[in-house]
Fold this sequence. Notes:
The protein is of the alpha/beta class. InterPro entries: PyrdxlP-dep_Trfase.
Amino acid sequence: MAHSSAIAVFHFLKRPDLRCVAEETRVEIVAGRCASSFAISGSTMDGMRLAFPDQTLRTGPAWVIRHGLELTLLLEGILQRETTTPPPFPLLLRASFAAARTAALFEALDEGAGQSASPPPWAGLMGGDQPPSSTVLMEIWETLESHLPSEVKRTATPSLPLFESLFSWLTKTWSLIGPLEVLMAAGGDARLQLDPRNGLNHYGCSHRPRPWAATFASSTASSVSERGFAAAERVRIRLQRALLYDCSHSMLLETAGNVRHRLAQYYGLPDGERVILAPSGTDCELAALAIAEMNPARKPITNILIAPEETGRGVPLAAAGRHFAADTARSPHVPRGQSIEGFGPIAEDAVEEIRLRTPDGSEVDEAILTEECRVHMERAIRAGRHVLLHQLDLSKTGLLAPNETVLEAFSRTFGQDCDIVVDACQARLMPSRIGGWVRAGRAVMITGSKFFTGPPFCGALLLPEAWRTRLDHDVLPTGLKAYAGCGEWPECKATHGLSEVVNHGLILRWAAALAEMEALTSIPSLEVRWRLERFLSGVREAMAHCPDVLLLDTPTPVRTSLPDSWDDMTTILSFLVRAPGQGATDEFIPLELEKARQLYHWLNADLRPVFGPDEPERKSEVAGLLCHIGQPVAVPSKALDGKKAGALRISAGARLVSGEPIHANLSTEVRLAREIADARMILAKISLICHHWERIARYDPLPTYAPATLPVPAPARSLSQQNGEK
Length: 726
């Protein structure tokens, strides 16, 4: 980049999504006079220049800058591979229209976040669900042609057959072309889709970095980090360049294998053949059940779940071999609750649920829980069934059960009649511990989207040797083709009925998560422990001085000792919030679950428009901070006469330990002090909301990707009105 222009011109690089893309190109970016919105010159990778009008570089619109960056990235890929000058014209056509589609999708996201302006007529066409016709493509080309460097541009008028060929290519590749923040939303279910009103998904997360938000939501899901976004962007660029040469399938298949190999390395497994990728922990449950049904005696399964209310709402359905949602990673419509084709017959007692909490919200005594598990297992085995026993490590509120000693005893007692799978989807564990479990014969479900703070919906099932061997001698239920493809599984007989299409969204999300996982491994274990302790003690102290919250007592996880371990710490701080209308000295009555959900959404919204410009500066600062924490979990409460309270969560994640690359100039102590200050601001915003509940409720503001810059709005429609108008 042109160093002399860096401070004066590159205002747009304050946007982390644009900066991460710009850093991947070698082109020189300058301010200049352009006949169109931007201009590219040069015919070699080292001699290309991307020029924008000065005003565009200073203020946008951002989609124009994104368009220019994408086209240069694609041209660099072509110039890297081609030896002729100019390069083949069909490649230039493909690059031009792929860049235009990426820009159009980027513009639509910015428009939803209230940041876009004046898109060209072709943006709506290139951002649609299907490519425009050949004749319309020819019309669009009259505009797109002006952006190509004169050194590589062909002056002859292209023919209709050329655009018919282009249309055919776009039809095949349409769903794979786009910016990272769109492609990462693919291959999950409806919870990943962005709300066009605010640019956030079901979890209140963005597929773009969101560094201005105070984020401690790793017990639920996190917006992608700048480190993760940059890592996934490098994979996306390879995909976009591979599309130009019709070799995207092999590229994605190779990348999926690389992701499985890196996960195996991380956990000390022999190779990627022991790893199954899945969009979510609930999808992992389906995979675990399918392999358990391959038990040597082919006995029907009794599936014993630990506290499914503290794992995921769809888990009990998946544990019974049923569709757990109305859509899947590969199918837009499935009959939720119905049996998935190919799974064994479902008996009434096929799924047993063990509770972790008593009716008053306290933890069930360990001896009682152990005995309950034993009774269910013995009864199932006497009935001629095979047991799939879950260990939960950890629940949404940080509980662990059954403990390690109990599992070892069950393995000795029940032997071949029992498979054990560890639900470690929170991933708050030493990698060596998880690898040890797999070597001991347990399967382990993990995700990159909880503790590791990768994007939502990247899961994996780690296979012990016996489970992996089963895959070479049996086939998976045919209905799993709606959930998984061959590229996500090891190469084996079992997957022959699955789709050959690779889940590109899943691969991109894992690329982002692996960047965070590998950054964490660069920190010595004792230093990880110190950083976690420093943050958690600071937040506990802040909660103790906030009269509007009540920290729930969570026992530390009981695990076997490992050298320099940090995973015996409680890293999820669950707390109740005082219901509005109480004084600080009154008996603490917590928010009911539904009101806790409302509070959770308001925390992630800019509340300054509610209070207006004349409020004190401190109140305005607190109201404007976007706060993303763990979604409320339903917990019993004696104070609510049988109703469930909503426990919110502030959690320490891997990103808090390793920091972002932009924090490199800060000392660890200064950075952690800033993180603790952010947590204090979250508590202050909770108090602000509680003390002005009715006023905020009249507006019912939506969460938003970025802070608001608009005037005070009219009161918002209710959520029920919004849902009714969709």
